[in-house]
Write the C-alpha coordinates for this entry.
Amino acid sequence: MRSRIVLGCVVMVMTSMAGLAQTSSTSAASIEGIWRCQMEDLPAVTLTVTDEGGSLTGAVLFYLHRREPGQPVTATPGVPEPLFNPRFDGKTLTFQVSHRRAHPPGSLNDGPVNFALKLDGADRAEFVNENEHDLNAPVYVLVKSAY
Protein backbone atom coordinates (compact mmCIF):
# COMPACT_ATOMS: atom_id res chain seq x y z
CA MET A 1 0.00 0.00 0.00
CA ARG A 2 2.79 2.38 0.95
CA SER A 3 4.54 1.81 -2.39
CA ARG A 4 1.31 2.71 -4.23
CA ILE A 5 1.12 6.01 -2.35
CA VAL A 6 4.76 6.80 -3.14
CA LEU A 7 4.26 5.82 -6.78
CA GLY A 8 1.13 7.98 -6.94
CA CYS A 9 3.05 10.96 -5.51
CA VAL A 10 5.89 10.48 -8.01
CA VAL A 11 3.41 10.36 -10.91
CA MET A 12 1.69 13.54 -9.67
CA VAL A 13 5.01 15.41 -9.36
CA MET A 14 6.13 14.30 -12.83
CA THR A 15 2.78 15.31 -14.32
CA SER A 16 3.03 18.73 -12.66
CA MET A 17 6.57 19.26 -13.95
CA ALA A 18 5.58 18.25 -17.48
CA GLY A 19 2.76 20.80 -17.34
CA LEU A 20 5.17 23.54 -16.27
CA ALA A 21 7.57 22.69 -19.08
CA GLN A 22 4.76 22.78 -21.61
CA THR A 23 3.62 26.21 -20.37
CA SER A 24 7.16 27.53 -20.74
CA SER A 25 7.50 26.11 -24.27
CA THR A 26 4.07 27.37 -25.28
CA SER A 27 4.82 30.96 -24.25
CA ALA A 28 8.22 30.91 -25.97
CA ALA A 29 6.68 29.45 -29.13
CA SER A 30 5.07 32.79 -29.96
CA ILE A 31 8.49 34.46 -30.21
CA GLU A 32 10.46 31.60 -31.77
CA GLY A 33 11.23 31.81 -35.47
CA ILE A 34 12.85 34.04 -38.04
CA TRP A 35 11.78 37.68 -37.96
CA ARG A 36 12.53 39.89 -40.97
CA CYS A 37 12.33 43.57 -41.80
CA GLN A 38 12.66 45.04 -45.26
CA MET A 39 13.30 48.62 -46.33
CA GLU A 40 13.09 49.75 -49.94
CA ASP A 41 12.35 46.10 -50.91
CA LEU A 42 15.73 45.03 -49.50
CA PRO A 43 16.56 43.16 -46.30
CA ALA A 44 17.25 45.42 -43.31
CA VAL A 45 17.15 43.14 -40.24
CA THR A 46 16.94 39.38 -39.73
CA LEU A 47 16.38 38.16 -36.18
CA THR A 48 16.45 34.44 -35.37
CA VAL A 49 15.05 33.25 -32.02
CA THR A 50 15.06 29.63 -30.83
CA ASP A 51 14.30 27.81 -27.61
CA GLU A 52 17.16 25.44 -26.89
CA GLY A 53 16.11 23.19 -24.04
CA GLY A 54 14.12 25.85 -22.22
CA SER A 55 16.55 28.73 -22.82
CA LEU A 56 15.98 31.37 -25.46
CA THR A 57 18.88 32.00 -27.79
CA GLY A 58 19.41 33.53 -31.21
CA ALA A 59 21.22 36.03 -33.38
CA VAL A 60 20.52 39.26 -35.23
CA LEU A 61 21.85 40.31 -38.62
CA PHE A 62 21.75 43.95 -39.71
CA TYR A 63 22.14 45.02 -43.34
CA LEU A 64 23.90 48.17 -44.50
CA HIS A 65 21.96 50.04 -47.19
CA ARG A 66 24.20 51.89 -49.64
CA ARG A 67 23.04 54.70 -51.87
CA GLU A 68 25.49 55.50 -54.66
CA PRO A 69 24.59 58.32 -57.04
CA GLY A 70 22.96 56.95 -60.18
CA GLN A 71 22.86 53.40 -58.80
CA PRO A 72 20.06 51.39 -57.23
CA VAL A 73 20.14 51.00 -53.44
CA THR A 74 21.99 47.87 -52.30
CA ALA A 75 21.93 45.92 -49.02
CA THR A 76 25.06 44.30 -47.64
CA PRO A 77 24.79 41.96 -44.64
CA GLY A 78 26.92 42.64 -41.60
CA VAL A 79 28.16 40.02 -39.17
CA PRO A 80 25.49 38.04 -37.29
CA GLU A 81 25.64 38.89 -33.61
CA PRO A 82 24.43 36.57 -30.85
CA LEU A 83 21.68 37.70 -28.48
CA PHE A 84 22.82 38.26 -24.88
CA ASN A 85 20.47 37.97 -21.91
CA PRO A 86 17.31 37.28 -23.94
CA ARG A 87 14.14 37.51 -21.84
CA PHE A 88 10.55 37.04 -22.94
CA ASP A 89 7.61 38.10 -20.77
CA GLY A 90 4.91 36.77 -23.10
CA LYS A 91 4.60 40.07 -25.00
CA THR A 92 8.11 41.54 -25.35
CA LEU A 93 11.49 39.97 -26.03
CA THR A 94 14.36 42.05 -24.64
CA PHE A 95 18.02 41.31 -25.33
CA GLN A 96 21.43 42.87 -25.81
CA VAL A 97 23.78 42.78 -28.78
CA SER A 98 27.50 43.54 -28.84
CA HIS A 99 28.37 46.80 -30.61
CA ARG A 100 32.13 46.24 -30.71
CA ARG A 101 32.25 45.21 -34.39
CA ALA A 102 29.62 47.67 -35.60
CA HIS A 103 31.87 50.56 -36.66
CA PRO A 104 35.52 49.66 -35.88
CA PRO A 105 37.83 50.99 -34.72
CA GLY A 106 35.64 53.60 -33.00
CA SER A 107 33.23 51.05 -31.56
CA LEU A 108 35.78 48.56 -30.18
CA ASN A 109 35.19 49.73 -26.59
CA ASP A 110 31.42 50.20 -26.87
CA GLY A 111 29.10 48.46 -24.46
CA PRO A 112 26.19 46.28 -25.58
CA VAL A 113 23.07 47.77 -27.18
CA ASN A 114 19.62 47.01 -25.72
CA PHE A 115 16.80 45.96 -28.04
CA ALA A 116 13.14 45.05 -27.61
CA LEU A 117 10.88 43.09 -29.93
CA LYS A 118 7.29 43.92 -28.98
CA LEU A 119 4.66 41.54 -30.37
CA ASP A 120 1.94 43.33 -32.29
CA GLY A 121 0.04 40.29 -33.55
CA ALA A 122 0.76 36.63 -34.21
CA ASP A 123 3.47 37.21 -36.82
CA ARG A 124 4.24 40.92 -36.47
CA ALA A 125 6.36 42.89 -33.99
CA GLU A 126 7.94 46.30 -33.45
CA PHE A 127 11.73 46.27 -33.15
CA VAL A 128 13.21 49.08 -31.06
CA ASN A 129 16.75 50.08 -30.14
CA GLU A 130 16.22 50.97 -26.48
CA ASN A 131 19.49 52.93 -26.35
CA GLU A 132 17.98 55.54 -28.66
CA HIS A 133 15.81 57.69 -26.42
CA ASP A 134 15.06 60.23 -29.15
CA LEU A 135 11.36 60.53 -29.98
CA ASN A 136 12.31 60.37 -33.65
CA ALA A 137 14.22 57.08 -33.23
CA PRO A 138 13.12 54.57 -35.86
CA VAL A 139 10.78 51.72 -35.00
CA TYR A 140 11.06 48.83 -37.41
CA VAL A 141 8.27 46.35 -38.14
CA LEU A 142 9.45 42.76 -38.29
CA VAL A 143 7.37 39.94 -39.75
CA LYS A 144 7.78 36.34 -38.59
CA SER A 145 8.41 33.80 -41.32
CA ALA A 146 8.73 30.04 -41.46
CA TYR A 147 12.15 28.48 -40.93
In short: The helical segments are 2-29. Strands lie at 33-39, 42-52, 55-66, 74-77, 81-82, 84-88, 92-97, 113-119, 124-129, 139-145. The chain has a mean pLDDT of 81. Residues 2-29 form the longest helix (28 residues).
